[in-house]
Amino acid sequence: MLGPVETRSVSPVFIGRTEELDTLNDALARARTGEPQALLLGGEAGVGKTRLVEEFATAAGRHAVVAVGGCVEIGADGLPFAPFSTALRALRDALPEEFATAARGQEEELARLLPDLGEAGAGRHDEQGMARLFELTARLLQRIAADRPVVLVLEDLHWADASTRHLLAYLLRTLRTGRLLVLASYRSDDVHRRHPLRPLLAELDRLRTVRRIELARFTREEVGRQIAGILAAEPAPAQVDEIFERSDGNAFFVEELAVAGCDGCGTGLTDSLRDLLLVRVETLPDSAQRVTRVVAEGGSTVEYRLIAAVAQLGEDDLIEALRAAVGAHILTVTRTGDGYRFRHSLVREAVADDLLPGERSRLNRRYAEALEADPTLVPADARVMRLASYWYHAHDAAKALPAVLDASVVARRRHAYTEQLRLLERAMELWDSTPEEVRSALRPVDYTEVYPPCGGDPATPLRYLDLMAEAAVAGRFGGERERALKITKRALRLLEDEPDPLRAAWFWVQRSRLVQSQARGDGWQELATAQDLVRGLPPSEVHAEVLALAANWSMLHRPGPEAIAAAERAVEYARMVGARDIELHARLTLGGLKVDAGDPETGLTEMRQVLRDTLAEGVHDVAGRAYVNLPSKLQGIGRDREAVSLLREGIAFARTHGLPDPEAFMRGNLSASLYALGHWTEAAEAATSATEVRHSAKPPGAGALRLAHLALARGDFAEAGRQLTAARGHYGTHDRMPQHSLSLARVALGIAAEEGRLDDARAELLRALEDGFPPGTHRHGWPLLRAAATAEAEARTLPAAQPGRAEILDRLREAVGTLTTGAPLWQAYEQWTRAELRRAQGADTADDWSPVVTAFECLDRPYELARVRHRLAGALLTDGGADERDRAVELLRLAGAVAAHLDARSLADAVTRLAHRARLPLTRAPRQALGPADPAEALGLTSRERDVLRLVSAGRTNRQIAEELFISPKTASVHVSNILSKLGVSGRGEAAAVAHRLGLFPAETLTAGPAG
Prior knowledge:
Blueprint: H1 18-32, E1 37-43, H2 49-60, E2 65-70, E3 73-74, E4 77-78, H3 82-94, H4 96-103, H5 107-110, H6 129-144, E5 150-155, H7 162-174, E6 180-187, H8 197-205, E7 210-214, H9 220-231, H10 237-247, H11 251-262, H12 273-278, H13 286-298, E8 302-303, H14 304-311, H15 315-327, E9 331-333, E10 339-342, H16 345-353, H17 357-373, H18 380-393, H19 397-413, H20 417-431, H21 436-439, H22 464-477, H23 481-497, H24 501-517, H25 524-534, H26 541-557, H27 561-577, H28 580-596, H29 600-617, H30 620-636, H31 640-657, H32 660-677, H33 680-692, H34 700-713, H35 717-731, H36 738-754, H37 758-771, H38 778-794, H39 805-818, H40 824-840, H41 846-857, H42 862-879, H43 882-902, H44 905-917, H45 935-938, H46 943-953, H47 958-965, H48 969-983, H49 988-997
Helix pairs in contact: 3-4, 4-6, 6-7, 7-8, 9-10, 9-11, 10-11, 13-15, 13-16, 14-17, 17-18, 18-19, 19-20, 20-22, 22-23, 22-24, 23-24, 24-25, 24-26, 25-26, 26-27, 26-28, 27-28, 28-29, 28-30, 29-30, 30-31, 30-32, 31-32, 32-33, 32-34, 33-34, 34-35, 34-36, 35-36, 36-37, 36-38, 37-38, 38-39, 38-40, ...
């Protein structure tokens, strides 16, 4: 357990707050059962938030580990991640072994938050960097809180830096397990309309897992009890009335007024809040007042040795001054015992506001000079940031600019990109007022992707354009994309006056990325401009990156020969200049493009090699992308079972290395494969997870889209519509990719058709046909065309469907004739779509549907197989004849069993309706007493052949039969051939029908496959 929690109240009695304490204790009780809890405690300054937290933390410490961290102010600046760093340090001190176990393997990354863990690795800086750190932090807390309750207290969120706010939001969105209670406090009267905390509070209010507590002022009765506790005597009613009226029930003001009255300082107090806060400071000795002014300007906490260096008092005089300030309850000793802070921030703010302008800058200069002279005066992890703040507020540009640039590097290395952006904007503000001799000694500050420092030589002095490049990247990585866009616009204007094609191309690439992320467009115009700028230039990293990004954009939007050529050049250029990351990205893109172009084995081989290379070299961001793209291409050729294995491996990788966006995409792809394989419960779980695990907006769209597919198949059209709307919201309208637009159109068309809105269904189809089907989009195009053909077939007899019907059918036939197949799955879909088009004309027969059923019987798609069996049954019943009826019964039983297993209500209803119309019994009559006890024996089937026939009847392929029975696929094929011969049938579907007609297997065993 941690040591006693610091107390900063002069009142020995805790008053009221029963309801609030009950809420906190209830949350702790829930957390102790393994249900993470989050509470936001708001209230005006001085209302008693800190005292309530102290009381709760002290009591909670008997049952839980309590770790407290507060947001820190240095002047007007916050330290990145300060409350989390402090709280994690407290957890590490309290649970050293457990902390080490939970952090094992990720110490370098977590050192960005807690430098005590060692040197933070150089790491990789990308748009996932901050999310990666957040995910690892959330997992660290989950692991520590797995076996014991942990209370994480974050105080003074109104001072929180942007990175702290982002981390808190991520933590509260993603925590699902662990005995963790997060309690964050903030000053509500400071959160004005433009305060940066306000959007976070609004976001957290929308989370069901977060509760908000608003602390009210004291009633008159409570004020009386508080005064009695302070004075250790019952106050006169008139005194209570006066203090209650003047304090308005604010607990801190009650204390100040009561103490002032007790000390004889009440006479002459004005109604001014500032005067009330300063009254006890002004009664201190001059030396003590001087020290309080020094501490007020130093930050929310100041180390004793630093105070001594700045105050310039003798040691004895300084200690006496501090003793007087502490005795008057103005200052208090910090939790660590090595410094001081104001007992209440309101007093510090009042003292700081009372400083004269010249006095403030002089104090900041003294702080900066003292820290430069002896860097050990403050903790190492805060030194650079505090020095930059002190020099900036000292208004010394020559000293401030280098210090601010150093601080920006520290912020970047901690993945505190928003703070880095703020510091770089401050550097740009200081640039013109900084002497030239100082600027000429500066060098490019840090890493800016492939941007070449001005002049191309590391010895070349830093230029303003370099700062703009750093700031643009920091804004993009930190989510401040609007600010980054403005910076790139200004940079490109500067480059108009001083042409530099390479750097201009780099800034246009930034604009492309920012435009896409800000929903301003698809980014192609900006990329095309960058391509024009680098054309004809010698190979460089910028040139290679432009080509790689253009190829990747084309793969997602307009794949084709030009995209392949761009990818090949990107690989070549990247190798020439040694840009390994760009090379790996480009090779992955090239492999995907080759799969789309009809050369799947070559493309898949290249993609697998990229995955192996990235794992071996530790290039985690490219590996994450490979774990998304490679399974996606496998799905595109119908190899979903392979994709599932790879996706599960990828999800584990993403979890280990903190890659939330790739993980969300993987979970969406996993849901698609599980849906195809007939594991719909697991598919729903994966899709739901995809909507919850993410850093940016687009990845959850895949999960929502899969949930829409599932809801449509299960007949819940309202839910399908809700999920479709959610998916569209995530994907947006600014950057239409065929893989998204075609899938969205497929669901929208299906919902419209099921709800009888045929015109809307046709409109979805026509929009898709207008956009066309680029290479590689057949996996999304065939389901759409099949669904449109089915809708037309279902509406064939409706008079309202006749206008425009001939044109729609012609357009569908034309599209079917041009869309590539390329894999057995899509060949089966082509046959299915053509059969539906025949049905739409009322001309389909069993001869149209039998090949479709045979095609799907060889595939791993139980739902599609059940649907086409239902269609074949309908065609057989139309043809008439006793044999056809018997076969139709068995087909409907098979389709019904799958529909029941999957809870595919639309299909189940269709099977029931067809059986009812044809007066077919779907339940078997009891077996007759006479006849062989085992029909399999009468047919001459061996025990192994019986096992094989059972799996054939369930729709398994030879490979699946081999896996389940632990035999080779060739042996399984031999068994199937023997079975067909013994049964006297020509195909697997007929064999299944015979097996069911004879009642060889209970209906409940004939499912689409194991649920697990």
